[in-house]
Structure formats: structure tokens, C-alpha cells
């Protein structure tokens, strides 16, 4: 199946989970990453159970914050 | 070197002053020219911490900004935030939460509101190195 990750269309295996995609994409500091699928935010506790579908559009958002 | 148009600097300053006493924050995007970064667009995001000591970018606004960058063929260059009451240098928390060593981290100090100071840093681990910031 095909999905779009960070604006790039790519072929991935069927039944791919968000958790596996995070690994496959070599996401740095995954503890600071939020994932959206088709503009819906995925709860970080659901990465293992969330299965991607053909045509999904996935974005990785890196937490940005700090303090003075 | 990282460069920014003076009108973008003025817009950041105006926004950060408007958000006082809280920290203001946002993203920067533009083009890469070798090792040089050219800021072409500044994004003003909500500090969801609504705090004078911390900031976190609103994830929904962050998503919208990333889409806007992509549609305008801009690359994300880093982020900016204000320090209402402290100097323009990365705090320990800024360093701890700076995950991207390639990004530029712009910090605007308003501790002397009449004499604001904007610096850009690259941060890797606990080390912060000031970048040459050109405002034109």
C-alpha cells in the first residue's frame, strides 16, 4: 500500500503500525514526537495499536519548547 | 550565517512585546544556500504554556505551519522564542529540549524592553554555539 509521510509518498507493507513506522523512518527522539494521520492526532499510547491504511497522510511533529 | 529581513525582526519584536509577560514563540522557515540559512517566513504560534518561564508550541498550529512551508517550498530552519526576563542565551531547559542539532534557535531577550537582543544559536547536547545572525 501507499502512504504519504512528511509530504513524501512511499510504499509500505500492509498492516503497518504507527510504532513500526516511527522505527522504519528512524525518527530521532521519538519520545518528543507527535504523529498525525490525516490531520488527526494519534495518542502516543496508541502507536502500537494504530494500523495505517492505504492513502493515509502521516506527519511527524517534533515537540518544541523550552524555558528561560 | 543566518539572515532575516528587518521587517521579520520587527514583527517578532512586536509580537513578543504584545505577549508579555509571557514567552512568545514560533517557527522560522526559508531556504538553504550551502551553510547559510535565509529566513523567508516567520510563524507566530501560541505558547500553550501561557507562561513567563516556559514555552511549548501549539501542535495544531505547528502542523499548519509545516504544511504552509511545504506548499511554499520552504524548509524548516528552526524556531524562535522570547525571554521576557532573562538574557538572550539558551537556558538549561532550552538545551535539554533542543533535539535538532541542525536547527537554529533564535532567542529574543526583552529583559531590557527598550534594548531588545536577538541571537541565534545551534545547540548540540549541552553545548550552545552562537551563530552569525544578519538582519537586513
SSE blueprint and pairings:
The complex is a heterodimer of chains A (68) and B (136).
Chain A: E1 2-5, E2 8-11, H1 18-24, E3 33-37, E4 40-42, E5 57-62, E6 65-67
Parallel strand pairs in A: 1-5
Antiparallel strand pairs in A: 1-2, 3-4, 3-5
Chain B: E1 2-4, H1 6-19, E2 25-33, E3 36-45, E4 54-56, H2 59-71, E5 75-83, H3 92-96, E6 104-109, E7 117-124, E8 127-131, E9 133-135
Parallel strand pairs in B: 1-3, 1-9, 5-6
Antiparallel strand pairs in B: 2-3, 2-5, 6-7, 7-8
The share of residues in helices of chain A is 10-25%
- Terminal-residue CA separation of chain A: 46 Å
Topology as H/E string of chain A? EEHEEEE
Task: Report the strand count of chain B.
Answer: 9
Query: What is the rounded Rg of chain B?
Result: 14 Å
The residue-averaged pLDDT of chain B reads: 97
Largest interface: A-B, 17 and 31 residues
Strand content of chain B: 35-45%
What features would you describe in this structure?
- The complex is a heterodimer of chains A (68) and B (136).
- Chain A is mainly β and 68 residues long.
- Chain A has a single domain, classed as Ubiquitin-like (UB roll) (Roll), CATH 3.10.20.30.
- Chain A is 10% helix and 37% strand.
- The N and C termini of chain A lie far apart (46 Å).
- The mean pLDDT of chain A is 95.
- Chain B starts with a strand and ends with a strand.
- In chain B, 24% of the residues lie in helices and 41% in strands.
- Chain B has 136 residues and is an alpha/beta fold.
- Classes of the chains: A mainly beta (68), B alpha/beta (136).
